[in-house]
Amino acid sequence: MPKTMENSNPRLLISEILRKVSNAKTKKEKIDLLRENNSPALRMLLIWNYDDSVVSEIPEGDVPYTPNEAPVGTDHTRLEQESRGFYRYVKGGDPKLKALKRESMFIQLLEGLSAEEAELLCLIKDGKLTSKYKRITKAVISEAFPSIEWGGRGG
């Protein structure tokens, strides 16, 4: 996979993948891009956004965090690396975690990500991925990843 101009890491950020998918002209291109860049983190984020049975435990709306201004691909973490902790931010994931601690952890997570990935995670927690990536639909996701079973995830 060739390096992109934005990212010094040869592996695309999830935000870069979704931008490419959203900009793809045909449904087949979108599906192919999703499958080529398939990862547990990508599927988790898409499920979090599109599955109505997944309820975010982070309050809807703007999150008071300071975006990480470091150049993409340098001094920040990646959604792909952080995905193993996403369960903390959805209903039933970690019920013993106090709301204030959960929100504080979410802010720390956002501040460690690149600005674009932090923005993406904020959209996903509110189920608003399509407000930025308008041409990525649940139907496209379902066709790209037929093994995803929608619903039944509520905690």
Looking at this protein, list some descriptive labels.
about 160 residues; mainly alpha
What does this structure look like?
Helices cover 43% and strands 0% of the residues. The chain has 155 residues and is mainly α. It has one domain. Helix 3 (40-50) crosses helix 6. The model is unreliable at 1-5 (pLDDT under 50).
Summarize the structure.
By secondary structure, the chain is mainly α.
Tally the beta strands. 0
Helix content: 40-55%
Describe the global form. Answer: globular
Low-confidence parts: 1-5
Beta-strand residue percentage? under 5%
* Number of separate domains: 1
What is the mean pLDDT? 91
Q: Tell me the span between the first and last alpha carbons.
A: 38 Å
Task: Describe how the helices and strands are arranged.
Layout: H1 14-23, H2 27-36, H3 40-50, H4 79-82, H5 99-112, H6 115-125, H7 138-144
